[in-house]
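Check the record.
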Amino acid sequence: MRYSYDNWQSYLPFFSTETTKTYLEKSYQKEGIEQASQKSFENTYPFIYYIEHGKVYYEQAATAPLIIKPILYFYGLVHLIKACILTIDPLYPDTTSVLAHGVSTRKKKKQQYLFLKDEVKLQKSGLFPYMAEKMFHMKHLEGDKFYMVDLLRQIPEMEIMFQSIQKEQTFIDIKKEEDGYHVPITILNHYHMTESRFSTFLSEKLQVDEADIHYTKKHIKFPHNKEINRLKYNIVNKNYSLPIERSPLNDYPELFSHYLLLYNLSMIARYETEWWNECIKLMTNNDYPFIHQFLDLTERKSPFLIYEFLHSRKVHCQGNKKG
């Protein structure tokens, strides 16, 4: 990592109006927004309050009963996302259309319902599509559907659960060595790629010169690169990693998975109380261990992903200033 992350301690600088105003002003200048100084002054406290509210939700969820954790984590994440959007759009929220969640779930069935096989559908307007557009420059996602199990597969720390229960490997770790990063050569078999095709794939994803990508019998080596942050990072084993299977979801930020999973779980906790209680108390299938593991993880991982975004904007603004 290019920075040290220490849970909520890393957010402390944002609880200074002087630091936050400067941060927002540079961010608005990067976006070419007029009256950046005035707008940063107006948004300093709203930004701080979004962070503070998000932090409180997460802290309360950490000690709350499992039965209400999804609701608290979801709204905590929503507040943190709003803080991120405010670094890009000083007028947020300027319309009521961006206040909805931007996601829908299918009607639950009382019999034989399985969370892992449930799905969510993206809507045209609301917080999710607005986040996707403003934070990650992704548009036209309306109508896309995602299964919960596929979203969980996009979270590297969840691999231990897939290995234990489904005997399934979901990620390949990328080792950081003195001479660069090492990817196991077996990734070529999983991706069904030749060396040449994988070099092109890697160079496009990480902006690495193909001439700097080298192959051995066991590894694929490429130079240390700041764009490594475009890959998934495992906060448990401290490694970057690649999903072991090619999927359109691989190109989505991991934050999407946390938002969509928490949205669905929060809806279940609120409106499907019979199934939710039975899931927690009876533990009749694999839903419970996956949900429990995810909730334990997202307490640490989703604030990390938000901080990663906020930090990246700070770095980019500093870089522009130097240039």
